[in-house]
Write a structure and sequence with these properties.
Elements: H1 6-11, E1 18-20, E2 26-28, E3 32-37, H2 43-51, E4 56-62, H3 66-75, E5 80-82, H4 86-89, E6 96-99, H5 106-115, E7 119-122, H6 130-143, E8 147-149, H7 157-167, E9 174-182, H8 193-209, E10 215-221, E11 231-237, E12 243-249, E13 256-263, E14 267-271, E15 278-288, E16 297-306, H9 315-329, H10 334-374
Parallel strand pairs: 3-4, 3-6, 4-5, 6-7, 7-8, 9-12
Antiparallel strand pairs: 1-2, 9-13, 10-11, 11-12, 13-14, 14-15, 15-16
The protein binds nicotinamide-adenine-dinucleotide.
Nicotinamide-adenine-dinucleotide binds near residues 41 and 103.
């Protein structure tokens, strides 16, 4: 990676407020100036969190929708509104850009932002394809700027607590993980339910398991809009032998955000919508050695249920704080960027598997109808 030059520091608002640290990297000392693109459902959360940070100014906001733009301008009168994101990129006072637009626009907006020398935060998923993710990572390295993508759940207390349990091997040997992320909507017309909801589960699985799946299969259905899968069942196998199953859906009678992790010693239920988000069950099977020539016996074990105390900080606050800290020190969070790329790889693989399954089902459908009529 190239060293910061006067040219790159000028692109980010001038060298005046930078110190050079021991490694020769420039550390930003003044308030970080951020431009935010996208004020739909999620963008306002990013705006709220950034504006509440002591050392950040959101000096420009952008959305194609004039009405939304003006609504947020009334609430934040010091920010300059625009419908053209290039106004943000052309502003030399802007250090960093946050992109909270639909995924199909991530590559265009993020690549132009990086190319303009802006540190860039892109909401999940990083991009629509792995090829785009790789191009963004290369561009960030070339421009010597920070690139980070949203992995909000990895900053949440329950997900971190489960990681610690796994690191301490409290669950014994892991057998399987099973997860449901379903609700009635919100329905998206631009991407599959996999691209919308599964990034959260994919990121958690990669974080917990510390390994990439060797197999992934998905079946699903486009029940509401033809060509847009709105329910999917995804199965994965990991090199360690652990298997995982995810159910993601926009069509369900109630909201479920539930993951079950089963090991040889203990089991965990992580319910993100429950007041007791993590429960550790001392349950399983014990192997009883035969006495004499008798057969071996399996006895169920039902011990204590432990509910760990979790801190209640907002994950988005921790995530965006890490981005701002990275911008200040220019230390890109490399592990999280690799994980964001792997999430895109899993989305691509699951969507491909869904398409293949849909094609096979479509081919077999006339045959099945004929069999029904004949039979
Ligand atoms: N981290 C999380 O938990 C979380 C939760 C929800 C959504 N998200 C992510 O946030 C992003 C946005 O999702 P959303 O649900 O808010 O979408 P949305 O459709 O509700 O809003 C997107 C907004 O972006 C604007 N927009 C689109 N293209 C633009 C452009 N070129 N220039 C300026 N504005 C543009 C639209 O006008 C709209 O207001 C997605 O990447 C999504 O995956 C993350």
């Amino acid at each position: 990676m190239k060293q910061p030059s006067d040219e790159t520091s000028h692109k980010n608002g001038g060298p005046d407020a930078h110190d050079v640290n021991g490694n020769g990297w420039q550390v930003l000392r003044r308030r970080v100036n951020v431009g935010l693109i996208g004020l739909g459902y999620w963008g306002p959360n990013v705006l709220r969190v950034l504006t509440e940070m002591d050392d950040v100014t959101v000096s420009r906001i952008c959305d194609l929708d004039q009405e939304r733009l003006h609504k947020f301008c009334r609430r934040h009168p010091y920010t300059i509104p625009t419908t053209d994101f290039r106004m943000i990129l052309d502003d030399p006072k802007i250090d960093a850009v946050a992109v909270a637009t639909p995924v199909e626009s991530h590559f265009e907006l993020a690549s132009q932002s990086l190319d303009a020398g802006k540190h860039t935060f892109v909401e999940k998923p990083l991009s629509a394809t792995v090829r785009e993710a790789d191009a963004l990572i290369t561009l960030a390295e070339r421009e010597n700027v920070v690139l980070m993508s949203g992995l909000t759940f990895l900053y949440s207390a329950p997900v971190r607590a489960i990681k610690e349990l796994l690191q301490r091997r409290e669950l014994g040997d892991l057998y399987f993980i099973s997860s449901s992320r379903v609700n009635l909507g919100p329905y998206r017309k631009d991407v599959s339910v996999v691209c919308d909801l599964a990034p959260h589960d994919f990121s958690m699985l990669l974080y917990w398991m510390d390994e990439f799946p060797t197999s992934i299969r998905a079946i699903g259905k486009d029940a509401i809009t033809s060509g847009i899968p709105d329910v999917a069942f995804i199965s994965m196998g990991f090199p360690s032998g652990v298997v995982a199953n995810l159910e993601v859906s926009w069509i369900a009678p109630s909201k479920l955000r539930r993951t079950v992790i089963v090991g040889s010693k203990k089991m965990v239920v992580y319910d993100d919508v429950s007041p007791e988000q993590v429960k550790v069950f001392d349950k399983g099977f014990d192997y009883n050695k035969p006495e004499g020539f008798g057969e071996w016996q399996l006895a169920t074990r039902t011990g204590d249920i432990v509910i760990p105390r979790l801190d209640s900080s907002e994950p988005l606050v921790s995530e965006l704080s890490e981005f701002i800290t990275s911008v200040r020190s220019r230390n890109a969070p490399r592990d999280s960027l690799r994980l964001s790329r792997d999430v895109v790889k899993l989305i691509e693989a699951a969507d491909r598997s869904l398409r293949l399954d849909a094609e096979r089902t479509a081919k077999e459908a006339p045959r099945r109808t004929a069999n029904l009529i004949a039979g």
